[in-house]
Amino acid sequence: MCDSEMDKTTATEILAALNESSFLIDKTLSDLKATCPAEPFRTCAKLLGHVMSDMFDNVMAPIYDEHADLAPDWYRDGPPRGRPAVPPLDLSPTAQQALLAAFDAAYEKVQSTLGGLSNLADPLESALMSQGFHQISVALCRAKVTLLMVKTPSHE
User: Fold this and answer.
1) Is the confidence at residue 34, as pLDDT, over 60?
2) Residue closest to 69 by CA, chosen among 8, 13, 22, 23
3) Are 29 and 44 a contacting pair, CB within 8 Å?
4) DSSP string spanning 42-71?
5) Distance (Å, rounded) from C-alpha 29 to C-alpha 31?
6) How far, in whole angstroms, is CA 115 from its chain's centroid?
7) Which of 90, 114, 94 is nearest to 102 (CA)?
8) What value does the mean pLDDT take over residues 23-31?
9) Mind listing the pLDDT tens digit for each residue in 81-94?
10) CA atoms of 129 and 125, how far apart (whole Å)
11) Of all helices (H) and strands (E), which one includes residue 143?
């Protein structure tokens, strides 16, 4: 668990939004089952599984780890998730802060650019570019998480 915890209200709101999103996607898939041929339906179901898995692994489980009372019973009965080991980085606090600021600035720039992608005329191009920008966002968040998890020596 990290030093600063997410407050319970925010955690509850995030979980509610993700549960609602999951329900909408699942309902749409269920509706498609009646009209979609078997093979395309299986492909859609597999895609849904990947989305649900990412939502759970990357956001919901860490919230459940931090706020066990918000977790479903089946999760509380299982083994706790651990944080990945982070190799030590020999960074001064100043260097760490500079990198964090750069990652934040880059993330904000990527996010602001995402809004303009909806203006692209080709829906496939828009979707591909959005996916690319989201992957960049994920990479920046991972880098920031890595830096925040590292205990830096006190050079200064």
Assistant:
1) yes
2) 8
3) yes
4) HHHHHHHHHHHHHHIIIIIHHHHHH-GGGS
5) 5
6) 18
7) 94
8) 86
9) 555 565 666 778 88
10) 6
11) helix 123-149
